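FAQ: What does a multi-protein file look like?

Like this. Sequence, then tokens, then the next protein.
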Amino acid sequence: MQFGFSIVGVVFLAMLFIPNIKWAKSQPPGYEEISKHESKTLLMLERIGQVLTTCAAVVFVCPQGFSLPWLLWLIVAFLLLILYEIAWARYFKSGEKLDGMYQPLGPIPVPIATLPVAAFALLGIWYQSPVAVIAAFILGIGHIGIHLGHLRELSTHLR
């Protein structure tokens, strides 16, 4: 684990934040109502995970740089973020409907939640930072848990 300023982490955060900023400007109808039912525990874990993951992404660097086999972790993490961008593009092109946020991407459930968490966990492995991996894990419990709750609630209403 090595401290420094990570431009890779900044790029990952930009890839994460850009679609979220666009989404925040025009949340789909029904999102505010469904978010009222979120578990306070999951919401707290999500917020803690967001802060920790954001900080870890910027302050850790990979002590091995871009050498193999460590580079493979970074490549896979980056590919997961590309899939994340594809999931968002599909959502925006499909009319920005609430249920579109939770549609699987192939075998990946709730990809808008799972893909960035997995990408940041792999980024933490590339950094060789247990702190970054744990931060992503905490984020995952909250963020994925909340999205699965939304999906469950939507499924109940659609029946």
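And here is the next protein:
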Amino acid sequence: MRCPRCGHLEDKVTDSRTARGGDAIRRRRMCVKCEHRFTTYEEVIRAHLRVIKRDKRREDLDRIKLLNGVQRACEKRPVSADQMETMVDTILVELENEYDREVPSEAIGEKVMERLEKIDDVAYVRFASVYRRFKDVNQFLSAIEGMMVRP
């Protein structure tokens, strides 16, 4: 593993433990040259799902891209990194169980919104505004009113 600080290729593992509910291994490493400490994750590579975008393009389902979208929606909100990681991991497992090779982007967006609505209302509206491409304030108001009606 290349050191992110000095680029040296030799390091030693100082600690290993399971992460993401046993789906990954978190390793603390230390560069033998500059002694910089850094963390890596090791996980099983699953069969790749492809996302069918709105314009019919297809691209690989990217966990990091999905997590980044959730993080943007939850920015400056009381949602922990663990909650976001768990949400993304749960969504990915569900998608792998429901779809063989390709998944519509709409299915991903709906799953994210379903979970964000339970965690944080503001994050939900932020995500929905991008996902549903709100054009004006009235669409925001409709989304908020819809949330207020729900039990």
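Q: Is there any per-entry metadata?
A: Some entries carry free-text notes. For the entry above: The chain has two domains: 11-43, 50-149.
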